[in-house]
Specification:
By secondary structure, the protein is an alpha+beta fold. The chain has one domain. It contains four helices and seven strands. A hairpin with a 6-residue loop joins strand 1 and strand 2. The longest helix has 22 residues. The termini are far apart.
Length: 136
């Protein structure tokens, strides 16, 4: 009650800045907790989109098509952008490491609200990539 009276229970500007700065890390940790299971399911059912993360946003999905892994990330939902450029870059590195990667759209055109990351499909033995990328 005392905190509520003084407003000290509310986050400070520093708290909010730290929360925003950690957003890519939280996204990657959440995605990677579920990514191996999603990759196993996507490899077992080529052509079927498998959810990696759905709630809280952003929503991300794996789909294996031939020898390529597609990662669809919902960019815009309910009129708001759901993922920043930094979060996209962090997700890119966490899923694909240093593999050759491109932004592309599936032959059917894909979902209008999403961004698609695509790369050669990793095997379960070589995934996940190292947590730290070697710059050499």
């Amino acid at each position: 009650m005392a905190l509520a009276r003084t407003g000290d229970h509310l986050p400070t500007a520093g708290d909010l800045a730290n929360f925003d700065a950690d957003a890519p890390v939280r996204l990657i940790e959440r995605a990677l907790r579920q990514a191996r299971t999603a990759l196993e399911a996507a490899l077992a059912r080529p052509g079927v989109e498998v959810a990696v993360t759905e709630n809280p946003p952003p929503r991300a999905y794996f789909q294996v098509q031939g020898d390529r892994l597609w990662v669809r990330v919902v960019l815009v939902e309910e009129g708001r952008r759901q993922i920043s450029e930094r979060e996209i870059a962090a997700l890119w590195a966490a899923v694909f490491g240093t593999a050759n990667l491109s932004l592309d759209y599936p032959p059917d055109g894909g979902a209008w609200d999403s961004i698609y990351l695509v790369s050669p499909c990793p095997t379960l033995d070589e995934w996940p990539p190292p947590r730290r990328l070697d710059p050499s």
